[in-house]
Amino acid sequence: MAENHPEKKESSTRKRSVLYMLVRVVAFLVFHTICPVRYHGKEKLRTSGPFILISNHFSNWDPLINGYVVKPEIVFLGKKELASVPFLGWLFNRLHMIAVDRHNMDMAAMRNCMKAIKNGRVLAIYPEGTRHHTGIMENMESGIAMIALRGAVPVVPMMIATKMRPFHITHVYIGDEIQTEDLVSAGINKETCQTFMDRIRNAYGEMIRLHETHGSVD
Q: Strand order in 37-40's β-sheet?
């Protein structure tokens, strides 16, 4: 099977912003004290973009959990409602969030996603479109398939096993890259998009089984 691996760079040449670094310091303090986070499979992460990081979504802490372990600075795709929240809108704008209208075909957001990928960035997406309460990746927005197949870059799945709680370990799993090369070659259509979304579900199924087998007690 052909691998979906474009030529890797030695490291990311884009410097992190001061604000991004400050947020990472906050994450370090929180993740090593009050709310410990343990990552499994960190070696599967690339050291530079472009690639797409997908994750399930429990809480507002998730972007910190996702971004903390990824070496390059991440561009997040987030709901446009966040941009109107006092302070959060200011913060997310400076952390390079791409605002998206989840209920309509947002072509501006799609173009910004393609621009980020073309510029070698790491694009983080929550395929479920909102915080989930039951199951993981059971219901996904179809736009994730369009972005991934049009971007034609590696897709790395990350699973946050449980909602973060004080003084309990949160286990986070990084899965194997989801292949898209064969789907891109076949053309972007309803069938290839569905196949890609099935691959996402399979990837998360594997990580769920890994967590269950791991048998860790928080």
A: 37-40, 170-174, 155-160, 51-55, 122-125, 74-79, 98-100
HEC string of the chain?
Answer: CCCCCCCCCCCCCCCCCHHHHHHHHHHHHHHCCCCCEEEECHHHCCCCCCEEEEECCCCCCHHHHHHHCCCCCEEEEEEHHHHHCCCHHHHHHHCCCEEECCCCCCHHHHHHHHHHHHCCCEEEECCCCCCCCCCCCCCCCCHHHHHHHHHCCCEEEEEECCCCCCCCCEEEEECCCECCHHHHHHCCCHHHHHHHHHHHHHHHHHHHHHHHHHCCCC
| pTM, entire model | 0.84
User: Quick check: 115 and 106 in contact, CB under 8 A?
Assistant: no
Q: Please, are residues 123 and 53 in contact by the beta-carbon 8 Å criterion?
A: yes
The per-residue pLDDT string of the chain (218 residues; one tens digit each, 9 = 90 and over) reads: 444 444 444 334 466 778 888 889 999 999 999 999 999 999 999 999 999 999 999 888 898 999 999 999 999 988 776 666 676 666 777 777 888 876 666 788 899 999 999 999 999 999 987 666 567 888 888 789 999 999 999 999 999 999 899 999 999 999 999 989 999 999 999 999 999 999 999 999 999 999 988 755 44
